[in-house]
Amino acid sequence: MAFDPSKLDYKAAQKFLPRKGNLIANFWRRDFESQILDLLETGDFLQNFERYVGPLPTPGEGYLAAMEMIRKSYAPILKLREVLKRHVRGVIGKEPQFESVLEGLELPRRERRKAKNSSGSPVEALADAVDETQGRVWDEEGEHKILKQAVARLCAVGSCFLRYDFPPGLLIDGVDRNTGLDAQGVAADTWQDAYEQIYLELAPRGSAAVYLDPFTRRKTAFYSYMEPVPGTETKTRRAIQISWVDENDITQVRVVRHGSQEVDEWGVETGGTLLVVDALTEPLLTPDLLQLQDILCSIATNIKINSDVAGHPQMTLIDIAPPVVEVPAPTEANPDAKKRVPTAIETGPRTVQTLYSYVAKDKEGKPLVGTDGKPIIKQGSLEYREPVSSEPLRADIDFFALEIYSAVNQRHVPARASANASAAMLAEMRADFADSLLETKPDVEKVLRTVLKARLCLAAFAAGDTDALSQFKGGRVRVDLRLNAGPISVEEQAAIIAMRDARLISDETAMVLLSAVDDVEAEIDKLGEENRTASGLNKTPTPKANAPTSPVKLEVV
CB within 8 A of 363, min separation 6: which ones? Predict the structure, then answer.
């Protein structure tokens, strides 16, 4: 039976949204995505001791105090956050280049501007307006920051959801399914005005999902959010927005609500795109890297505890009585009776203690007396616990950190601190990093193209601009990410150029490493054109004198 999203109510739609965990053996077990995102996005480093893999105290007296000491001494070493930020910065640290290619403009902008037949045409003016509007929205609405957050989540776990829509406050009730946003009261005279009102957001974790129907291969998007209850000022209720593309290429929207049979439905033109766009890529972080991160933090915690011993030496008292205090201990025979109980020994900086040695006693517990009639005092002593060297622990940290760097193709980072790393070796390692950026690049560009084109179509539809809508639906959006492999030395630059000349790395990889050009693809096209011109491949061959002027017919004898 075919899946029909137009029949879903709130209870049925809720089943498609992700759950917080899986109930296994009567305990909620969190998945890897929750663990890694709690670490990176919320700063929950210890996660109720789930992230600590070091030695634990034996259960019993003093167990809680020991666990509290570990909690206070827990020292996070955020290598995963470091390598993730470096990868994200390399992919989308610079503002991408946007360009609209509409119908009738077959050549890229850098070439069609030279063509006299398209210069100054209405389509050209529309394309320029698209680029100008997107650039203005990008700067004013902080979309670069939103997309960096989205790419960070995408690279961390391999998926994320971007959502675009008009603010709910701009929409009114009584939506007509045929006229769509025209009946919703969107205040937009032009598609540029409407485009600036469409907001873009990274969907909060657990709020969005895209379901792929295995029978029809059609996708349905779900987005959960809170909205105010009509007629109240403080109460809210949960609503789920469902969107899908029908057979007429219209994006249908259905909103269902918790505790209410009220349903809103309308249709919009988005170029065949859902209001929630799912982005997918090969994740940079994996469960084994999270385990290496946990090991690093546990080693660092032990170093912290060892440094506490160095700063405040721990001592053992032998044959020395701890300080005591008298407390009331009334009995029936003596209501004023008191008893002496030991008190906690003060530790830490700038503490001075007065302690007493023990009085020697015989087998029956009676004090021993010397020849002078005075009690025999046992000679007490103090033993200090000296801290051990943390050098082996620091070496272990370097070892496990190197494993993380190697797994994410960032070996050049620790290698630059080594005096034994040559420029050629650093260039080779950095080339691996550039290749990893190039692997992520098309996945990010794909989702950006999808979102930008869908917003253009939605804006033109809201403004009732049929001409612009036709152009946007038939055209495409070009997005070029300007990759950046980070700063390099002069020696590394020379090594990269030598590797490129020896054809050990491609032109594209070399340009990413050198960060010499913003538009890598355009520069590669130019290089190809220059190479063809230099080799004579672009020249029209001159026919020989005895060459036939008409095609030669081959006859079979």
Answer: none
User: Is residue 276 pLDDT above 90, yes or no?
Assistant: yes
Note the pLDDT tens digit of each residue in 437-467: 999 999 999 999 999 999 999 999 888 888 9
Collect all residues with Cβ–Cβ distance below 8 Å to 95 and sequence separation of at least 6: 138, 144, 482
Map residue 487 onto helix, strand or coil. coil
* Residue of 196, 182, 195 whose CA lies nearest to 468: 195
3-class SS of residue 546: coil
- Do the beta carbons of residue 346 and residue 317 sit within 8 Å? no
Residue in the block written with tokens 């077959």 = 106
Question: Going edge to edge, which strands form the sheet with 199-202?
Answer: 199-202, 159-165, 276-280
In the predicted model, is pLDDT for residue 293 greater than 60?
A: yes
Report how far residue 310's alpha carbon sits from residue 176's, in angstroms, rounded to the nearest whole number: 74
CA 157 to CA 24: how far, in whole Å?
Answer: 23
Measured CA to CA, the distance from residue 93 to residue 87 in angstroms comes to 9
Contact yes or no for 222/208 (Cβ under 8 A): yes
Distance of alpha carbon 255 from its chain centroid, rounded? 29
pLDDT of amino acid 87: 95
Q: What is the tens place of the pLDDT at every residue in 481-537?
A: 988 888 887 777 888 888 888 887 787 788 777 765 555 455 445 545 555 555 555
Residues 16/9, Cβ–Cβ less than 8 Å? no
Question: What is the rounded distance in angstroms from the CA atom of residue 287 to the CA atom of residue 51?
Answer: 12
338-342/324-328 β-pairing: antiparallel
Measure the CA–CA gap between 266 and 138, rounded to whole angstroms.
28
Count how many Cα atoms sit within 13 Å of the Cα of residue 351 in the half-sphere of its side chain. 12
- For residue 344 the two structure tokens come to 């906690």
- Whole-angstrom distance, CA of residue 85 vs CA of residue 67: 32
Distance CA(267)–CA(514), nearest Å, equals 48
Q: What's the distance, CA 385 to chain centroid?
A: 44
| Tokens at 206, concatenated | 């657990």
- Which of 96, 210, 87 is CA-nearest to residue 153? 87
> Residue 514 half-sphere exposure, CB side, CA atoms within 13 Å?
21
Q: Are 512 and 483 spatial neighbours (Cβ–Cβ below 8 Å)?
A: yes
Q: Euclidean distance between the first and final Cα of the chain, in Å? A: 63
* pLDDT tens-place string over residues 329-369: 888 888 888 888 877 776 666 566 667 677 778 878 788 88
Report pTM: 0.76
